[in-house]
Amino acid sequence: MTQVPQMPKTPPGPAFAPDSLVLNRKLPLWYQVSQSLRASILGRAQDASARLPTEEQLAAHYGVSVLTMRQALKELETEGLISRHRRRGTFIEPRARRVSPVRLLGSIDAIVAQQSGERTEVLGHGPVAVPGDLCEYFPDCAEVVGYRRLRCDENDDEPTNWAENMVRPEVAARIDVADLERWPMTKVLRDRVGVRIARITDTVEARLADPPTAELLRVPLLSPILFYTGVTYDENGRVVDVARIRYRGDRFSFSVTLEAH
What angle do CA 219, 180, 93 make, to 5 degrees? Predict the structure, then answer.
């Protein structure tokens, strides 16, 4: 793990400061950089005139080569988050309708990036009996604390996904619900509650929208959705959170990157 240097000063122009990033050398650098930059773009206030720093400045900020930075920017351009203009620079596309990829590659920061940049409404929370299909994850718990949240695109206020999280009671007792309107659960657990997350196991499958999902996401009943399950383990190998997220099928794609060595 290598701490990258701070961002150098940018020339006069619209201000945009990407987040810092600790690179994991076991993962593709372009992917980590693209996900970090994506989170910075989606988490910022909308500004149609915002221009990114140059490729060289961004490369220096993240501690990578210009070629790696170029590959990361190409990924964001393909997704429709930025547009690149010869001699003018690279600009954020805040009004672009995004089809966001659900990816099975990366670090905890990649999980946070994937869930950032959307308006979140907490629909409800409170103690619930451990669901039968989750008993294997919480063998020592009779109850967990459930959280239900709806995420909407900030540009058009259209629902994109809704999430259920089942959290161990002693961990949930330290969660400020207001934080869940600002950040993903993974970030809240790690950065606000202080859980030392060791790993997250992801599963994505195709399903049909049930009545609650159809109503919340404003899609036809039995329309296709992506159903994501994320099981979060702490450093002691104990499950602290199980997330189940329903993504609109017309707003997300499924992408897996395999590295050949």
Answer: 60
